[in-house]
Amino acid sequence: MALEEDNLFRKIRRRVGRAVGDFGLIEEGDRILVGVSGGKDSYTLLHILDSLRRRSPVRYELVAGTVDSGFPGFRKEVIERHLVEHGFEYRMESTNAYEIIESRRRPGSSYCSFCARLRRGILYSLADELGCNKIALGHHLDDFIETLLLNQFYVGSLKAMSPRLRADNGRHTVIRPLVYVEEGEIIRFMRQQKLPVICCACPVCGEVDQKRQRMKGLIRELKGEIPQIKKSLIGALGNLQPRHLLDRRFPQD
Ligand SMILES: Nc1ncnc2c1ncn2[C@@H]1O[C@H](COP(=O)(O)OP(=O)(O)OP(=O)(O)O)[C@@H](O)[C@H]1O
């Protein structure tokens, strides 16, 4: 059963197609593990990549992979039902990540970042096991530009995320095909398509990251004055001018 391919579906697909072309995200023979959390972004990513696959002359395969971190109350059966209904090959990986986080996390350290690192490792192993050379994640345009601002405001580096990154182990490539898709479009898509979104059920699930929310708010506020702000910020990430920066690792003259 495929989703209805209405205007919004086609718009998001066009943007993903553009990102695939701009950054060479998908190549002949790829087998891509799509990280599906049960959230709006990764469901959207999976359906759009599947629709592109059906239309593309480039042959590639998709496998949906969910890391069940073992948080009590995680409704994995909701995800499984959706993936089966739509005919996706998938793996639900049950892990004891929850116990590891509880026992090893340093007091005061961020729950989410520890959990995300652990999950990333599990996804890499899963990709090996399932014969996947790429891992697709559901980060979208707003994630990219908020991360850019967060790093400038709080860390002091000019850095966001990469749409295509070779993993440290050299075996996998992480791709982020939703780089040109705005979060608002994904929210509309989720509602229109009635995607069965669930939360991870971790102890901090639903709590907002205050700093990220601040960046989100700032961008929203400035959008009234600068309508093209998101386009401009994502454009800035692809328009580096090192000679006009202060990084001495780049020649200045
Ligand atoms: N439990 C999981 N199993 C598999 N992949 C995951 C899992 N959690 C997150 N991911 C992948 O990592 C991406 C970024 O995760 P993050 O926790 O930041 O979620 P998010 O931005 O809210 O996205 P989503 O709406 O898909 O949950 C997700 O879009 C998804 O591709």
From TrEMBL:
Biological process (GO), any one: tRNA processing
Domain of life assignment: Bacteria
Domain tRNA(Ile)-lysidine/2-thiocytidine synthase N-terminal: 32-196
GO MF annotation terms: 4 iron, 4 sulfur cluster binding; ATP binding; metal ion binding; transferase activity; tRNA binding
Keyword Nucleotide-binding: yes
InterPro entries in UniProt: Rossmann-like_a/b/a_fold, TilS/TtcA_N, tRNA_Cyd_32_2_STrfase, tRNA_thiolation_TtcA_Ctu1
Position of the signal peptide: none
Keyword line: 4Fe-4S, ATP-binding, Cytoplasm, Iron, Iron-sulfur, Magnesium, Metal-binding, Nucleotide-binding, RNA-binding, Transferase, tRNA processing, tRNA-binding
Binding site for ATP: G35, V36, S37, D41, V67, G138, D143
PANTHER family: AMINOTRAN_5 DOMAIN-CONTAINING PROTEIN, SULFURTRANSFERASE-RELATED
NCBIfam families noted in UniProt: PRK10696.1
UniProt protein name: tRNA 2-thiocytidine(32) synthetase TtcA
